[in-house]
Every structure is written in structure tokens, then in C-alpha cells.
Amino acid sequence: MTTRTLAVVSAGLGVPSSTRLLADRLAAATVAALRERGEDATVEVVELREHARDVADALVTGFPNAALRAAVATVTGADAVIAVTPVFTASYSGLFKSFVDVLDKDALTGTPVLLAATAGTARHSLVLEHAVRPLFSYLRAVTVPTAVFAASEDWAGGDGAGQELAARITRAAGELADVVTGRPAAARPADPFTDVPSFEDLLRGTA
């Protein structure tokens, strides 16, 4: 069974936070979807709250410290990324964007990414399409069609709201799993002698 690495980026500021809760649910759903497709997965969480000062220092000095380098390596070396941000002032949070700014602009090229966001009201739901998706499109990441937004009512709005959120999570996780499992294995150097005719064919003049 192939084992994939799934990096989860959570930009929530509270402990606990709805952002981390959504991130964990998306990760669990994606692991389940991958297993249904015959692949295993390991999950590595990057909690940006723990790296806030490291990110600020790196933006000022241009040199990330060891802890931030490890976080960056986790994200850029993963088979897929789940990126979840809270909504601040009708856009992604400053911490979320600052971490993205620390990444090399080519580091996520071709990487499958599931986008998600949390906010206090559903009025912010389009932030995923007008702010977050364009950001990852600039980085040339492969974002899955379904982005998951969760407002306060999704957590406390009764069974109907909870079921709708669960359905979005399941759909997005399935899309991410499909992209990950559909990716070809790493290209290996071609054998220069693959198409060389045999000596017998050369003697018969059939090559």
C-alpha cells in the first residue's frame, strides 16, 4: 500500500479554535478517502500560531530559523496540503498570508491543495473564491474544486447544518484523494538501451 504524506496548515489563533477543528475533520476525511482508494496516509500538522514570531522574524531578516524551516519543509515536501485560515477583515488572516510569503514561489507548483476557511458568519463564504483560491493559483498549486467554509452556525446550527458541513467535507476530501491517487509516480531516468534492437534482429536485417 502506498503511503502519502498529508500536510495540514491551520492558521487559527485560539486554543482550541474552529479553524483547527475544521482542519482535523478535513484531514480525517481525506485519510479515509485515500484508504478507500487503496492508499495509506500520514498527517503532519503545521499550527501557524506556534510559528507566528518565527514567521515575522523571517520576513524581516530573510532567514527562517530551524523551527520554521522544518514547518516549511513539511508543507513543501507533502503529497498534498490542506490549508485552513480564519477570515479576518473579509480575507485570509495576516498570519496565514505571512506564512505563504515565506514559501518559495515555486515550492507548491503542482501540489494538490484543499482550501478551507472559518468565520463567524456565512457572509464571508466567498473569501475562498475571491482571495484564497487566487493566492494558490498564483503559486501554481492544484486546488480541488470544492473549498470548505464553516461559519458559526455550521457548528451549532443543529443537525441540518452539521450534515451539510459533513457533506462538503466528504466531497472535498474525495476530490483531494482523487487528485493525489491520480498523480503519476515520480519520473525515473529513461533507460537509453530500452529501444536498442537485439543483435539477432540486426543480423536478420529486421531491425
Automatic annotation (TrEMBL):
Which UniProt key words apply to this protein?
Flavoprotein, FMN, Oxidoreductase
Q: What class of enzyme is it?
A: oxidoreductase
Q: Does the keyword Flavoprotein apply?
A: yes
Q: Which residues form the NADPH-dependent FMN reductase-like domain?
A: 6-155
User: What molecular function terms (GO) are annotated for this protein?
Assistant: oxidoreductase activity
Enzyme Commission number(s) from the entry:
1.5.1.-
The cross-references to Pfam families, in alphabetical order and at most eight, read: FMN_red
What is the protein's given name?
FMN reductase
